[in-house]
Every structure is written in structure tokens, then in C-alpha cells.
Fold this sequence. Notes:
By secondary structure, chain A is mainly beta. Chain A has no helices and seven strands.
Amino acid sequence: xxxxxxxxxxxxxxxxxxxxxxxxxxxxxxxxxxxxxxxxxxxxxxxxxxxxxxxxxxxxxxxxxxxxxxxxxxxx
Amino acid sequence: xxxxxxxxxxxxxxxxxxxxxxxxxxxxxxxxxxxxxxxxxxxxxxxxxxxxxxxxxxxxxxxxxxxxxxxxxxxx
Amino acid sequence: xxxxxxxxxxxxxxxxxxxxxxxxxxxxxxxxxxxxxxxxxxxxxxxxxxxxxxxxxxxxxxxxxxxxxxxxxxxx
Amino acid sequence: xxxxxxxxxxxxxxxxxxxxxxxxxxxxxxxxxxxxxxxxxxxxxxxxxxxxxxxxxxxxxxxxxxxxxxxxxxxx
Amino acid sequence: xxxxxxxxxxxxxxxxxxxxxxxxxxxxxxxxxxxxxxxxxxxxxxxxxxxxxxxxxxxxxxxxxxxxxxxxxxxx
Amino acid sequence: xxxxxxxxxxxxxxxxxxxxxxxxxxxxxxxxxxxxxxxxxxxxxxxxxxxxxxxxxxxxxxxxxxxxxxxxxxxx
Amino acid sequence: xxxxxxxxxxxxxxxxxxxxxxxxxxxxxxxxxxxxxxxxxxxxxxxxxxxxxxxxxxxxxxxxxxxxxxxxxxxx
Amino acid sequence: xxxxxxxxxxxxxxxxxxxxxxxxxxxxxxxxxxxxxxxxxxxxxxxxxxxxxxxxxxxxxxxxxxxxxxxxxxxx
Amino acid sequence: xxxxxxxxxxxxxxxxxxxxxxxxxxxxxxxxxxxxxxxxxxxxxxxxxxxxxxxxxxxxxxxxxxxxxxxxxxxx
Amino acid sequence: xxxxxxxxxxxxxxxxxxxxxxxxxxxxxxxxxxxxxxxxxxxxxxxxxxxxxxxxxxxxxxxxxxxxxxxxxxxx
Amino acid sequence: xxxxxxxxxxxxxxxxxxxxxxxxxxxxxxxxxxxxxxxxxxxxxxxxxxxxxxxxxxxxxxxxxxxxxxxxxxxx
Amino acid sequence: xxxxxxxxxxxxxxxxxxxxxxxxxxxxxxxxxxxxxxxxxxxxxxxxxxxxxxxxxxxxxxxxxxxxxxxxxxxx
Lengths: 76, 76, 76, 76, 76, 76, 76, 76, 76, 76, 76, 76
């Protein structure tokens, strides 16, 4: 494992409804979904960028905590 | 062990009800639950990201202390 | 993978309409589209620069969160 | 010993009642209790993250001093 | 690829009219155009300096976001 | 000796009564008492974390100076 | 290529008239013109110092954005 | 000598009475007194942590200058 | 070329009259003029310290932008 | 010589009477006087910690400039 | 050449009369004059410390720009 | 030469009377005078710590510019 990996930046997501989806997209030549995590209302997930994840997509009503502040997603 | 690991960022969780669950998700190609810790009301847990944990999920009513401030989870 | 990759800067994009397109352009001698991600209204995507992506193009009505602040794109 | 270990972050715990328990959880693939320290009322303990401890659990009425401020635990 | 490349600085360009041109100039002994990207009105592009690009020229009405602030280009 | 050891963080303890006890706990797989220092009223001790000490316990009425401020212990 | 090159400082130039000239002077024992770039009114150029360019000369009416602020050139 | 040693932190002690004692405690597995320095009233001593000293004990009425501020010791 | 060279500090000079002279003095055992650049009124030059230039002399009426602020030269 | 030595911290002492004594104590297993410098009234001495000096003792009426501020010594 | 040399600190001198003298003193065991530069009234010189220069002496009426602010010399 | 030497800290001395003496004391096991520089009234000298100089003594009426501010010496 790359030594710096444990010090990568993290974001936080708080689900405001059931079924919020956090999708990890693969780093590297191909950009594919490699993991999908479901959150129920009120749950919080904290996730780092990793060797395998260089992009994260959030679906469903949630608050996304980033270095730019809190970004509110909305459901479709 | 990676030398930088002891200096990884940490978060803190304070349980506001019994049975708050802190779930460590595995770093690496597969993202799976590898550890689940239960907190009773009033307990505090402080946890670093590690070589094995790159994401943390919190269920149940709790305060999650992060670099973005305190995020309140709520029970389902 | 380059060790520093996990610590690359990230941007965030919030779609304000369906069909917002986030296009990754290849790093290196040739600058080509290598990935296109579609966002529906209300979705948020967070993306790092990577070994393969050194430029990102955003089409459709969206908010782009960067170190310069939030830049509002508009649809054509 | 990893050279950086002596420079790891520390937290402080002040017991507000007898029998406050500070539990060190193991770093690594398995997350297990590896040490339990009891504090009597009024005692203070200062503890670093180490090669062996990547999470700390506090039970009983205490003040936990962290980089996020002071978190008050309460007894069950 | 140079490890530091993923951490190079980036600029952002928002097109205020169709046909805004972002031209990458080659690093190295010769300074030549090596890539031209067209933006339509309302599109945003975010671009890093790379091993191949050490200068960027913007033509057409646009906002250029740099560490010096926003520079407004105008069309000829 | 690890080169960084001389630059480890330190804390300070001022005894407010005779017999204040400062206990160094061992770093490593086992967490044991390895040193106990007694302070009389009015004495000050300044101590670094070291290769051998990753936790410090203070008993008796004292002021503990840490990066979180001054924490007052009290006697039992 | 020197790894640090992608992280060299950059300046920006906005042309206020046609024919603004940006001249790169060679680094090294001899200081010679090695590249001349013409900007038309309203165009912006962003340029890094490189292995080949250690000095930049600007002729014609323009705004030069530097770490010292904006310096206005004037035409002869 | 470890290269970093010359850059270790220092503290200062000003004696407010004759016979103030500054005791250096050994770094390493055993924590023993290895040096005792006496200060007369009005004298100032400035001391670094070293390869051999990881803890310092001050006895007698003095002002101890630390990164936490000035701590006043008092005589027994 | 020394890798750090592209990141050396730069100064800027704005000529307030024709014939302002910027003279680079050689680094090394001998300190000699190695390059002279003439600026006409209104021109701006931005120059780094380099492997070959460790001192710069400015003659003629100009504004010299440095980390100490703007220093106005005057003609003889 | 250790490379970092030239960048060690320094203190300054201003003598307020004749015969102020600045004593360098040896770094290392033994802590002994290795140099004594006398200052007359009004003289200033600026001294770094070195490979050989890890503690400095000041006797006589003087102002000692440290990172904690100015500490006034007094004569016996 | 030492790589860091291009990043050494610089000072600036503005001559307020003809014949201001800037004298570079040699680094190393012997401290000798190795270069003398004359400035006429109104000229500015910017000079780095180098491998050969560790001290600089300024004679004649001038303003010396340093990290401590501007120091006015006066003629004898 | 140690690479860091060119980046060592510097102080500045402004003589307020003729014959101000700046004395460099040797670094190393022995602390001896190795260079004496005389300043006449109004002259300024800027000097770095070096491989050979770890302490500097100033005699005669002068202003000594240090990181602690300006310290005024006075003549005997």
C-alpha cells in the first residue's frame, strides 16, 4: 500500500433520506463503478480517496461535506 | 506497518443512544465491512484511518466530530 | 501508482439539470477525451486529478466547486 | 520502532468519576481490545496513537480532550 | 509520469460566448501549440499545467480563474 | 535513537500538593508502567513522549499543561 | 524533465492592444530570446517559468499579473 | 550526533531564589537523573531536550518558560 | 540543471524611461556582469535568480518589484 | 558538521553591567561547562545552539532574548 | 553548485548618493572582501547570499532592504 | 560546503559610532574569535551564521537587528 494513502483527504456524507447512494469510481485508465454503498436516513459515512477510488458520486438527498463547504444534493 | 500510519487523521464519535454502530470499511480493491464497534449511550470512540480502514459508517444517534465540524447522525 | 496520486486536488460538481456532462481529458502528449460521466439533476460528483486526467470539462447547468470558489456553468 | 511514532498525535482524558475506562483497540487487520486502563476520579491520562493502537474508546464520565475540542462522555 | 504532476496547479476557464479557444503551448526548447480546446458559451474547463503544457493562451470572451483572481478576456 | 525523538512533543506538570505521581506507560505491544516520578508541591516536570513512553498518567492535585490547555487533576 | 517543473510559478498577461509581445529569455550561461508570443487585444496568456525560460519581457499595452500584484505596461 | 538534535526545543528557567535545581532525566529504557544544575537567584538557564535528556524537573522558586507559557514553581 | 531552479524567486522591473538597464551579475567566485538587458519606457521584465545570476543591478528610472515592496530607482 | 547546524535557533544576550557571563554547557552524556564568554556593559552576544552546546547559563545583570520573550536576569 | 543556492535569501540596496559601496565578504574559514560593487545615486542592487558570500557590508548613504525592514545607512 | 549554509539566518548591524566591532566566534569544540570586522558610523553589515561562525559579539554603539527585534548596544 502506498504510505501516503492513510493520509489522503476524506469527505463526509449525511443521508437525509433512505437509499442515498455513494458510488466509488475507479482510478486509472478506465473509470468504472467499483463500489456502491447505500445509506439510510440519518446515517453518516466518511470516506477517503484511495488507490482505487479517485472519484465519488452521490445520489439521493444528502449533505456532502467537502473542503469547499457543505454541498446539498437533492433527489431526482 | 507504514511509518505514516500513526499520523493518520482521526475522527471522534459520541453515542447519544445505546447501540450506536461504527463500521470500518476495508481499503483496497474490495470495499467490505471488516470491523463493527458498538457504543453505548455517552461513550466516546476516537478512530484513525488505517492501512485497513479507508471509510467509516456511523449508524444510530451520535455526534461525529470531523474536520468539517460536528455532524449529527440520527437514528432511522 | 504514483504515491502522491491519492493526495491530488479534487473538485466537486453539482448538477442543476439532468444530463450534465463531466469529461476527463487525458494527460500526456495527446489531449483526448478518456471518460465521460453523466449527472442527473441534484447529483454531486467529486473528482481528483489523476495520472490519466489533467483537465476536466463541464457541460450543462451545474455548480463547479474549485479552489477559486464556485463557478456556475450554464447550458448552451 | 517507526521513527515518526514519537510524534504521533495525542489525546487527554480527565476522569470525572472512579473507574473511567480507556480502551486501546489494535491497529491492523483485526481490531481487538489490547489494553484497558482504569482512571480514578480526578486523574488525567495522556495517550498517543501508536503502532499498536489506532482507536481508543472511553467509558464512564470523563472529559476527552481532542483536536475537535473537549468531548464530555457520560456514564451509562 | 513525474509523481508531482498530479499536484500541479490548475486554472479554470468559463466561456462567455461560443468558440472560446484554450490553447496549450509545449514546455521545452520549442514553444509550440500542441492542443486546442473549444468551449461553447457557459461551459467550464479546468486544466492543470502538465509535463507537456507550460503555457496556456485563451482567446474569446471568457473568465479565466487564476491565483491572481479572475481575469476577463474579451473577444477581438 | 530515532533522530526525531529529540523533537517529540512535551507536556508539563506542576504539582499542587506533595506526592503527585507521573507514570510513564510503555509504548509497544504491552502497555505497562515503566517509570514513576514523584513531585513535591510546587515542583514542575517537563516530559517528552519517547521511544519508550507513549502514555502518561497523572495522579494527585496538579496542573497538566498540554496542547489542549491546562487540565487540572484533583486528588482522589 | 525536472519533476518540479510542473509546479513552477506562473504569471498571467492580458493584452490591452493588438500585438502585445511576450518574450521568453533563455536560462543558462547565455541569456537570449528563445520564444516570442504575440497576443491580440483581449487575449490572456498564462506562462510558467521553465527549464528553458528564466526571464520574461513584455512589450505593448498589457496587464501583467504577478505575485507583486498587477503591473501595467504601456506602449512605447 | 543526530542531525536534528541542534534543532530540538528549548525551555528557559529563571531562578527566583538561590539553589534552584534543574535535573535532567535520561531518555531510554531507564529514566534516571543524569545531571543536576544549580542556579542562584537571578540566573537564567536555557536548555534543549537532547539525545540524553527527555525530561526535566525543576525544584525551588523559579519561572519556567515553556511553549505553554510561564509556569511558576514554588519552593517546598 | 538544478531541479529547484525553476522555483527560484523572481523580481519584476517596469521601465519609466527609455534605456533602463538590468544587469545580471555572475554567481560564483568571480562577480562579473554576464548579461545586460535594455528596457524601453513602459516595458516590464520579470526575472528569476538562476544558476548564473545571483545579483541584479538596475540603472535608469524604473520600479523594481521585490518581496520588500516596490523600490523606485531614479536616473543619475 | 551536521548540515542543519547553521540553521539552529539562536538567542541574544545584552549585558546591563560589566562581567556578565555566558556559559555554554556540553551536549552529550556529560553536561559540563565548555566555554565561558564575558560581556561588558552594553555589549550584545548572539549565540546558536551547536553540536557542542545544548544549554546556556547566564549570570549577571542582562537581558536574555528568547522565543519566550525577554527574560531579565539580575545579579546575585 | 549547491541546488539550494538559487533559493537563498536576497537583500536590496538603493543608493542615495554616488559611490555607495556594497562589499561581499567570503564565507569560510577566512572572512575576506571578495567583491566590491559601486552604485551611483538612484541605482538599485539586489543580491543573494551565495556559496561565496555570507556577509555584506554597505558604505555610503543608502537604504538597505532586509527582512527586518529598511535600514538607512549614512555616509561617514 | 553544506547545502543549507546559503539559507542560514542572518542578522544586521548598524553602527552608530566609529569603531563598532563585530566579532565572529568559532563553531565547534573550541569557541574562539576567528574574525573581527570594524564598522564606521552609519555603515551597515549583514551577516549569516556559517559553518565557521555560531556566535557573534557586538561591541560599541550600534543597532543589532535580530528576529527578536532591534537590540541597542551601547559603548562601555
